[in-house]
Amino acid sequence: MSLDDSILLEDDGLYMxxxxxxxxxxxxxVGYYCDLFASSMKRKWDYRVYIDLFASAGKCRVKNTxxxxxxSPLLAMxxxxxxxxxxxxxEEPVSMDALKKRVQLYFNDKRCAFISGNTNENAKKVxxxxxxxx
Length: 134
Prior knowledge:
Radius of gyration: 15 Å
Helix content: 25-40%
Structural class: alpha/beta
Number of strands: 6
Mean pLDDT: 92
Strand content: 15-25%
């Protein structure tokens, strides 16, 4: 699915945590590296999995502004050479609920696993979502 960035950057009425202004730069770099990795490895590896251990809600609002920016999950799903699978971990129920709804709304064609709860306590669940190769 190809989405117009303006649609993704709109306030969709779902929960968005507030982040500091520096998060814009951080998220730009995350998006850049996701795209760089996904495109450069698409012909080298048979299967690529994006794992986000602290996924949050998928969108954020820059503190003291009305600016909406994409969080790492939606950035990773927006790359030109999509990953084969996405694994999202999030401890906060309100963030996980918003993320699931956004994935369904914007990226319902992607293969995703959602793991709720403390990432450190759910390491086995994360590993269990990964493909097994012989």
